[in-house]
């Protein structure tokens, strides 16, 4: 076992990238915030985007904000693990910081949409894909329609996309059901470090 396999700090795991995906409204942000609380040593990937910062967003913390021309150069240079365009803006996952975290022995987590997860599967076949799912379809519908302040057509489109994403469950290695945020975060953490830590404790 070398130092990279052993990792650093509290981890005794073989570094691996975990990709978390799931439909809108399933609670990804809440689960990731709880995961940070439970294990702050995990590396959380920061995406690059061509959109303008929103009030309160910090460059390098929430996103890496880059000009469209630079983003296109990054694509041409193969700097992204995955990238996509959404609502007129481009988003992508820089490859180098993820690889550096893994080389340092830190489990890395990337939260992206289904299409991005599929790209990562091709770029890094060893990555672990995890779907965050609602307790039931009815529960997700309530989460997406509960506010009642959005255009019904927009809500229906979100539900349609959610159906497509949940139908892709078989493409994922694991499924975490978010019925309780703390429990879901603990389950995700165990998938990232539990089984592998046992491997190196033998």
Automatic annotation (TrEMBL):
GO cellular component terms attached to this protein's record: cytosol
Pfam families for the chain: Guanylate_kin
Example of a GO MF term: GMP kinase activity
Limits of the Guanylate kinase-like domain: 15-193
Source organism, top-level taxon: Bacteria
Keywords (A to Z) from UniProt: ATP-binding, Cytoplasm, Kinase, Nucleotide-binding, Transferase
Residues at which ATP binds: 22-29
InterPro entries, A to Z: GK/Ca_channel_bsu, Guanylate_kin-like_dom, Guanylate_kinase, Guanylate_kinase_CS, P-loop_NTPase
Major subcellular site: cytoplasm
Record-listed E.C. numbers: 2.7.4.8
CDD domains: GMPK (cd00071)
Protein family: Belongs to the guanylate kinase family.
PANTHER family: GUANYLATE KINASE, GUANYLATE KINASE-RELATED
Name of the protein in question: Guanylate kinase
Species: Lentzea tibetensis
Lineage of the organism: Bacteria, Bacillati, Actinomycetota, Actinomycetes, Pseudonocardiales
